[in-house]
Protein: Pumilio homology domain family member 3
Organism: Verticillium longisporum
Amino acid sequence: MQPQAQPFFPGPYYTGQYPAQFPPNLYDFAGRAPMIPGYGLPMGYPLTGHIPARPAKDQDSGKGVRSVLLEEFRSSSKSNKRYDLKDIYGHVVEFSGDQHGSRFIQQKLETANSDEKDQIFREIEPNAVQLMKDVFGNYVIQKFFEHGNQVQKKVLAAQMKGKVVDLSMQMYACRVVQKALEHVLVEQQAELVDELQPDIVKVVKDQNGNHVVQKVIELVPRQYIDFVMDSFRGQVSQLAAHTYGCRVIQRMLEYGTDQDKEVILTELHNSAQVLITDQYGNYVTQHVIQHGKPEDRAKMIHLVTSQLVTLSKHKFASNVVEKCIEHGSPEERKSIREQLTTMGPDGTSPLQLMMKDQYGNYVIQKLLNQLDGADREAFIEEMKPQVELERLPVAAVGQDLRQRRGIIKGEAFAELARQVCFIHPAVGHVTSAVVVVVVVVVGTVAL
């Protein structure tokens, strides 16, 4: 659901003279628009005099108050009138807060000359913070960080001072903070990031702020973000199991120093048993298995395979098992296969249970996909007694699956069954170990 756009100015107030107007401090005592300050000049110093007097307003119920110029611009697609940046001078802030106006400015800034950028910047500078928080205005500020000159970028970054935490946790402004970190000089990066220090854990756990911290870890030189690592010590397992904290921990594993990673991995290994089955922590353990050093990967895989069947049937942990199969060594995959096919005292194997399990069947599928050559053929042979379909001709598979659909679980492989076995679409409700059935049929019948 798209959030409602926030006003680029404070909300309008009402008087008898004007049905709707903005607070009086936005206009001088004569009713004129305020003088636009130039960057690098004292506030209010007019570079080109007053901008044009306040335009007439017309009411647009449900859409706020728009100037005549903006209304004409929004209707220009019908009249084929072409607009340039100079046509909206004096209305840049209003256009920035409008969906179509914002897109127009963004496109024009990509090819604008320095004079045009200067004029646009003079108008947005006094309202930069409001625009950063606006659903459409934030994109205009981002464009200036991309295409503005170093003076303009520095001025915009200076506007953020004292507000970085607030902006980082705001839905739209958090994007601007990230863009600023990408384009300002290192000294300004350090100044912006330093404001996060007292509230770093709060920002990490915020749905918007976590993206800013991830960008900080990616871009800012390590000597300026010691406080980030310091704040994580002793809290790694808690953050790894957090909705947003888990993302930040993964970035630290990617961009941190070797010492940082060692600290994080020590805490992760100590709590891996819990994290593997956690709805967010499982992503962090998967990250270690996929991107970690061989010794860390092996340690995590050993823990998983020691509880293979239990974890394979767990909603979250089954994803970790799949990652172990995908990134484990051939020897580790062979060990997993042997565990699954070893008969127990009661004459059943874990394979039989997992083929019918809503999560375990995905583990079987992953193992089939990762095995090749003789190992794959051997696994197929080991599955045959479990599915009892190896002698069925292809033409009979559809009917047989219809008969079995009451006892086969899970929707995951119906489409695969249709594609491989040419089952009629009506069998779309067939569910669970279908992939195993398909593999066995393909392995024994020439299609």
